[in-house]
């Protein structure tokens, strides 16, 4: 980006899936390539921000100039985010966090001949909602991937999690793809963006975010 619209901002992002172990070799995860989160981390860096990326397992290389913290489970991700939250101005939650974790995980590999295991699941913390409700919360940006009723669900999610900016996309279109088509939801309404490469979507989000931040600084 020619203009350093996020100069002086410290941006914390989550990206990728989380992995919740069942035993030593198996687990529950979400479909997430990490492409959108990594593209946003790069766009924030290019806009002059100091960037920390808390990443689930993706197999993607850490972008140059971005500090990456690797995590596996949702709780690891929340711990890493909470450790950084006080030192950031903006938090962008792009990760596809597993909603449940296994509470009766096996310390050894489960053997196929045994009775099929019964998994006990418990709900994972909502990292975005946790950060958004901190007394000194950073400016929070959420993502919503839905398979239908996109704007209705996304708007409800923005209100429930109390985030000023939410990026909505159709899950079947966004997952793993190189392009994305999103709608930005904020206090002023819905702002649809055209379908374009994730790099360009990320840049557009950064510009929208920077405009909201400057409006907030000088209302
Ligand atoms: O509720 P849902 O998972 O659809 O919300 C999506 C948004 O919330 C994303 O920004 C995602 O990163 C964030 N989230 C989170 N922790 C969770 C679940 C979702 O930070 N446990």
From TrEMBL:
Record-listed CTP binding positions: 99, 109, 125-128, 143, 157, 161
Catalysed reaction equations from the record: N-[(R)-4-phosphopantothenoyl]-L-cysteine + H(+) = (R)-4'-phosphopantetheine + CO2; (R)-4'-phosphopantothenate + L-cysteine + CTP = N-[(R)-4-phosphopantothenoyl]-L-cysteine + CMP + diphosphate + H(+)
GO biological process, one term: pantothenate catabolic process
Cofactor binding comment, as recorded: Binds 1 FMN per subunit.
Key word Flavoprotein present: yes
Annotated stretches, region: Phosphopantothenate--cysteine ligase: 11-219
Swiss-Prot/TrEMBL keywords: Decarboxylase, Flavoprotein, FMN, Ligase, Lyase, Magnesium, Metal-binding, Multifunctional enzyme
Domain DNA/pantothenate metabolism flavoprotein C-terminal: 6-211
Membrane is among the record's keywords: no
GO cellular component, one term: phosphopantothenoylcysteine decarboxylase complex
One Gene Ontology MF term: metal ion binding
EC number from the UniProt entry: 4.1.1.36, 6.3.2.5
Pathway(s) it belongs to: Cofactor biosynthesis; coenzyme A biosynthesis; CoA from (R)-pantothenate: step 3/5; Cofactor biosynthesis; coenzyme A biosynthesis; CoA from (R)-pantothenate: step 2/5
Needed cofactors: Mg(2+); FMN
Role this protein plays: Catalyzes two steps in the biosynthesis of coenzyme A. In the first step cysteine is conjugated to 4'-phosphopantothenate to form 4-phosphopantothenoylcysteine, in the latter compound is decarboxylated to form 4'-phosphopantotheine. Catalyzes two sequential steps in the biosynthesis of coenzyme A. In the first step cysteine is conjugated to 4'-phosphopantothenate to form 4-phosphopantothenoylcysteine. In the second step the latter compound is decarboxylated to form 4'-phosphopantotheine.
Family per record: In the N-terminal section; belongs to the HFCD (homo-oligomeric flavin containing Cys decarboxylase) superfamily.
Protein name, entry field: Coenzyme A biosynthesis bifunctional protein CoaBC
Organism: Crenobacter intestini
């Amino acid at each position: 980006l020619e203009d350093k619209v996020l100069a002086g901002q410290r941006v914390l992002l989550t990206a990728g899936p989380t992995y919740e172990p069942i035993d030593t070799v198996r687990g529950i995860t979400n479909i997430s390539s990490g492409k959108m989160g990594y593209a946003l981390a790069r766009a924030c860096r290019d806009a002059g921000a100091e960037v920390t990326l808390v990443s689930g397992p993706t197999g993607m290389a850490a972008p140059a100039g971005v500090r990456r913290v690797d995590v596996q489970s949702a709780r690891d991700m929340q711990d890493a985010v909470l450790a950084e939250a006080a030192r950031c101005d903006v938090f962008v939650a792009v990760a596809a966090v597993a909603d449940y974790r296994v509470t009766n995980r096996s310390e050894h590999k489960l053997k196929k001949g045994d009775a099929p295991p019964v998994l006990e699941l418990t709900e994972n913390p909502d990292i975005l909602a946790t950060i958004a409700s901190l007394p000194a919360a950073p400016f929070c940006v959420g993502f919503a991937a839905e398979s239908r009723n996109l704007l209705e669900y996304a708007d409800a999610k923005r209100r429930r999690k109390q985030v000023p900016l939410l990026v909505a996309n159709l899950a079947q279109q966004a997952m793993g793809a190189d392009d994305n088509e999103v709608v930005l939801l904020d206090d002023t309404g819905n702002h649809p963006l055209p379908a374009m490469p994730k790099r360009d979507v990320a840049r557009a989000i950064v510009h929208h975010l920077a405009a909201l931040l400057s409006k907030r600084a000088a209302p």
